[in-house]
């Protein structure tokens, strides 16, 4: 028994010394109180051998080290304000409109130059075409196509006007049309095709196409918005690719993208109107079939690529894995879309604020209960 007590006595003394050392350790600390320093010193015991061997690294925040690990993740605060998520940025919209006007003018200048380079009808027949060779030309079909163009375009204008985020939608439409007209002005100039119709009227060529003549032709085309139905489009050679198809297809895409999805019957109506307008261009022999196919491909690829980038914020960063970022217009896209946060909601309102007197509630008349 004495042996056991002698053996356990040193351990008992050690336990008593440890108990007296940590008897003042509280369950938790409040490091914001004046007593925090005393609690920290009571807990740390810098003179202890354990503390000397396991010195904790200094903390930036001044808090003592513990077994808990704090991980700070910088996350963007949620943007609840609709104006912050979808800013109007009217200045950017006006800049996009300037780009559209510039590229439309370049396209008209390109057509004015091409008109004098078109092969003579008397010596050059229309190129072989799988559709045109089997369908007799109908001049009235071009008027039908342009009437449908006016219907689709005016519908787009009405839709954008009453869209809540109309400035963003307008900006996107202006940019898409700018790119399409820029590419069209180059393709029609580099490759000049013979006139596809034997009945379409072409203005006489100019022996010396001076700068004044070219500018006069360009403004004449602009005054008629490039349509033949008003008699302003009397120049030939704008074949690759079809401007009628670009307008019809882009109009349908805008209506289907920015109108409520439950309006799918209306979407089908505009799809049929657009397809009818494209077919009427071919029936009138206003374009070769290849012109229509290239226009459809260029318009749909550009529209879907642009909106894929705009609706996915991760694609706004250009890196080695984002091959869409290699598009030549990508830097312009980042400038115009960098402040838009995600897909645009399908919301609508009146662009003009109503007078307060119209919305003010009339006072209630006294009833029998009063």
What does this structure look like?
This is Sphingomyelin synthase-like domain-containing protein. One of its GO terms (molecular function) is sphingomyelin synthase activity. It is found in: Membrane. It is a multi-pass membrane protein. The protein is mostly helical and 370 residues long. The protein has a domain at 90-338. The protein has 13 helices and no strands. Helix 5 packs across helix 8 (211-223) and helix 7 (166-190) packs antiparallel against helix 9. The radius of gyration is 37 Å and the shape is globular. Residues 1-6 and 36-44 have low confidence and may be disordered.
What secondary-structure arrangement, pairings included, does this model have?
Blueprint: H1 2-21, H2 36-44, H3 49-53, H4 82-85, H5 90-115, H6 140-162, H7 166-190, H8 211-223, H9 243-258, H10 264-283, H11 289-310, H12 330-337, H13 356-359
Helix pairs in contact: 5-7, 5-8, 6-9, 6-10, 7-9, 9-10, 9-11
Biased composition (Polar residues): 31-41
Transmembrane segments: 94-114, 140-162, 174-195, 239-256, 268-288, 294-316
Pfam family, one: PAP2_C
């Amino acid at each position: 028994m004495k042996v056991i007590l002698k053996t356990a006595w040193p351990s008992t003394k050690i336990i008593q010394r440890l108990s007296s050392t940590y008897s003042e350790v509280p369950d938790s600390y409040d490091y914001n109180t004046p007593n925090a320093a005393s609690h920290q010193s009571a807990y740390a015991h810098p003179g202890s051998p354990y503390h000397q061997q396991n010195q904790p690294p200094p903390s930036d925040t001044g808090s003592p080290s513990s077994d808990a690990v704090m991980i700070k993740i910088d996350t963007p605060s949620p943007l609840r304000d609709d104006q912050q998520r979808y800013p109007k940025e009217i200045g950017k919209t006006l800049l996009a409109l300037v780009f559209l006007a510039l590229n439309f003018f370049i396209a008209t200048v390109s057509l004015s130059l091409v008109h004098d380079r078109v092969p003579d009808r008397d010596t050059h027949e229309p190129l072989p075409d799988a559709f045109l060779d089997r369908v007799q030309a109908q001049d009235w079909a071009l008027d039908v196509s342009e009437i449908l163009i006016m219907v689709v375009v005016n519908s787009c204008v009405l839709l954008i006007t009453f869209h809540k985020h109309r400035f963003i939608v307008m900006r996107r439409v202006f940019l898409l049309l700018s790119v399409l007209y820029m590419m069209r002005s180059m393709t029609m100039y580099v490759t000049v095709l013979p006139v596809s119709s034997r009945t379409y009227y072409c203005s006489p060529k100019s022996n010396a196409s001076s700068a004044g003549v070219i500018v006069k032709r360009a403004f004449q085309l602009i005054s008629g918005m490039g349509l033949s139905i008003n008699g302003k489009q009397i120049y030939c050679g704008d074949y690759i690719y079809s401007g009628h198809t670009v307008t019809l297809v882009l109009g349908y895409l805008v209506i289907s993208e920015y109108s409520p999805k439950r309006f799918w019957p209306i979407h089908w109506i505009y799809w049929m109107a657009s397809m009818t307008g494209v077919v009427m261009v071919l029936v009138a022999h206003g374009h070769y079939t290849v012109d229509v196919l290239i226009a459809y491909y260029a318009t749909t690829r550009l529209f879907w690529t642009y909106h894929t980038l705009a609706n996915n914020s991760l694609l706004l960063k250009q890196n080695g894995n984002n091959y869409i970022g290699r598009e030549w217009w990508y830097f312009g896209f980042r400038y115009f879309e960098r402040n838009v946060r995600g897909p645009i909601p399908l919301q609508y309102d009146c662009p003009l604020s109503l007078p307060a007197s119209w919305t003010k509630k009339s006072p209630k008349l006294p009833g029998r209960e009063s």
